[in-house]
């Protein structure tokens, strides 16, 4: 699975984080890195451990386009080549024998993306909602103490919305003396594989078969991301980052259609999206926190051998089988589904429906009416 996941780019930080401090420690797929931005704005990411005495380079300092260790000043460029060992005698060739990992990084949509797999790196997908100049963005972030799969397969499980976000929500609201929300029920669901992932489609009971949740649906993008249209002017992509086996980062990347004549927002702000309250208990009435509650209570890595899957879990089973198939593709040295190599096809894609194309069935995430989304 590590080989498979290393076929893709992942977001590792928000640009605004480097505005506050130009060096940041990041962890991705069980590895630690030092991410930095030089004085002239060039991004770099190298292995975090200094090969001299093991100090963290993410505690270091920028120097031109390079990064120096705070301990003894050893300096590395963005490719991981050692350029300077200040305390060594003049004429020392020690630096010429020192090399650490340096990794491709790019900025897109206010996020910093990194690739740590086999070279050459594939194209960083230019998601349409991230690059359009008529859309503003903000990003919520949550640190989730469980494996990424427990998070991602939630999107292949449409039936949980009836109970977790419907029946359970009403039970919570009853405890708080609040009015119930309407619980929507599924009539049927289907899953369609395409070159970038799965499209999940559902037909709510009493909805027309030309509703957009049934004709268009929501894409789960390989390997970990999900796109959902919340309403006519708000689309969210859920960016899930596998930090290591037992922890993940969840970026709630929000895209808002800018009002005509309104000045664009130059900065993409980052805000915390906690799933626990001040009493350290779960936020039972917040939709995103409800999801996190059921992910983390499965354990850091859930024991699938103890599960009892039913017909309603066919989307989850399909997702797992497909991931295993794509792992085999990656292990053979080939590109799995979702990897883009041709720059000519890496133009803005995943078009958003226009306002007139969004109907009432698609708009508003019907199961979330009355709930706090985040």
Short description:
By secondary structure, the protein is an alpha+beta fold.
What this model shows, in words?
- By secondary structure, this protein is an alpha+beta fold.
- The protein has 2 domains: 2-114, 3-layer Sandwich (Rieske Iron-sulfur Protein); 128-368, Naphthalene 1,2-dioxygenase Alpha Subunit, Chain A, domain 1 (Alpha-Beta Complex).
- It has 8 helices and 18 strands.
- It is 18% helix and 28% strand.
- β14 (218-221) and β15 form a beta hairpin.
- It has helices spanning 2-5, 15-20, 128-131, 148-152, 160-175, 212-215, 287-296, 314-331; strands at residues 10-14, 23-28, 31-37, 43-47, 61-63, 66-68, 75-76, 82-84, 105-108, 111-114, 135-144, 186-194, 197-204, 218-221, 225-231, 234-244, 247-257, 270-272.
- An 8-stranded mixed β-sheet has the order 12-13-14-15-16-17-11-18.
The CATH topology of the largest domain is Naphthalene 1,2-dioxygenase Alpha Subunit, Chain A, domain 1
Low-confidence region ranges: 350-368
Q: Describe the biggest sheet?
A: 8 strands, mixed
User: Which structural class do you get from the secondary structure elements?
Assistant: alpha+beta
Helix count, DSSP H or I runs of 4 or more residues: 8
Level of helix content? 10-25%
Domain module count: 2
Rg over alpha carbons: 23 Å
Query: Looking across the biggest beta sheet, what order are the strands in?
Result: 12-13-14-15-16-17-11-18
> β content, as a range?
25-35%
Instruction: Label the CATH architecture of the largest domain.
Output: Alpha-Beta Complex
Task: Look at the structure and give the mean pLDDT.
Answer: 91
Order of helices and strands: HEHEEEEEEEEEHEHHEEHEEEEEHH
Shape: globular
CATH level 1 name of the largest domain: Alpha Beta
Rounded to the nearest angstrom, the distance between the terminal CA atoms is 30 Å
Per DSSP E runs of 2 or more residues, the count of β-strands stands at 18
């Amino acid at each position: 699975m590590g080989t498979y996941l290393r076929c893709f780019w992942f977001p590792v930080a928000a640009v605004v984080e480097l505005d506050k401090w130009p060096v940041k420690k990041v962890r991705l797929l069980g590895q630690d890195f030092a991410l930095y931005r030089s004085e002239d704005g060039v991004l770099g990411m190298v292995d975090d451990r200094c090969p001299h005495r093991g100090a963290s380079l993410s505690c270091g300092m920028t120097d031109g386009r390079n990064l120096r260790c705070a301990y003894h000043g050893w300096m590395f460029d963005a490719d991981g080549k050692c350029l300077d060992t200040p305390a060594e005698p003049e004429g020392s060739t020690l630096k010429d024998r020192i090399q650490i990992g340096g990794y491709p990084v790019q900025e897109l949509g206010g996020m910093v993306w990194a690739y740590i797999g086999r070279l050459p790196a594939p194209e960083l997908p230019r998601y349409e909602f991230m690059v359009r100049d008529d859309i503003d963005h903000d990003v919520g972030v949550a640190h989730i103490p469980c494996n990424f799969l427990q998070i991602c397969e939630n999107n292949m499980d449409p039936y949980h919305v009836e109970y977790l976000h419907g029946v359970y929500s009403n039970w919570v609201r009853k405890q708080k003396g609040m009015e119930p929300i309407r619980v929507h029920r599924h009539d049927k669901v289907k899953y369609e594989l395409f070159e970038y992932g799965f499209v999940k489609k559902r037909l709510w009971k009493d909805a027309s078969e030309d509703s957009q949740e049934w004709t268009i649906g929501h894409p789960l993008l390989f390997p970990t991301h999900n796109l959902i249209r919340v309403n006519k002017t708000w689309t969210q992509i859920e960016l899930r980052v596998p930090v290591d086996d037992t922890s993940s980062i969840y970026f709630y990347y929000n895209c808002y259609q800018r009002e005509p004549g309104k000045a664009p927002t130059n900065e993409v702000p980052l805000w915390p999206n906690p799933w626990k309250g001040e009493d350290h208990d779960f936020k039972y009435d917040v939709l995103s926190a409800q999801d996190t509650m059921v992910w983390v209570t499965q354990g850091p890595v859930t024991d699938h051998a103890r599960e009892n899957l039913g017909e309603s879990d066919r989307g989850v089973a399909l997702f797992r089988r497909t991931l295993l198939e794509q792992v085999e593709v990656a292990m053979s040295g080939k590109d799995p589904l979702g990897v883009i190599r041709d720059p000519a096809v890496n133009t803005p894609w995943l078009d958003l429906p226009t306002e007139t194309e969004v109907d009432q069935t698609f708009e508003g995430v019907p199961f979330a009416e009355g709930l706090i989304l985040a």
